[in-house]
Amino acid sequence: xxxxxxxxxxxxxxxxxxxxxxxxxxxxxxxxxxxxxxxxxxxxxxxxxxxxxxxxxxxxxxxxxxxxxxxxxxxxxxxxxxxxxxxxxxxxxxxxxxxxxxxxxxxxxxxxxxxxxxxx
Length: 120
Fold this sequence. Notes:
This protein is about 50% helix and about 10% strand. It has about 120 residues and is mostly helical.
C-alpha cells in the first residue's frame, strides 16, 4: 500500500512539524499576494499562520504588516488618484480594481489601481 506525501515532513511516516507547516503556509500566502489573489485568500492564510505561531509558542506578531498598497480606498480617494470624479468610478464599475463589498458598498483596491495606472 502506497502513501502519498501531503507536504513537508519531519521524518518518514511522521506528520509535518508545525514549523514546516507554517513555512509552507507562509510560502502560499506570499504566492497569493504576489499574483494579487483576492484579498480574502491572502488574509485567510495570514490569519492561519498567526494562529499556528501562537500554538507553537512563537511571537504573536509573525506576519509582516500589510503594505499600504493593500488598502481599500473610498470613491473620493480613488478619484483623486485618477484625476476623475467619484461619479465616473461608479459608472465604470467593471474596472479591475473595483471591489464590491455589498449591494451598496464599493471600494477600490489601491494596489490594483496603481498597477492599472502604470499599464496605461
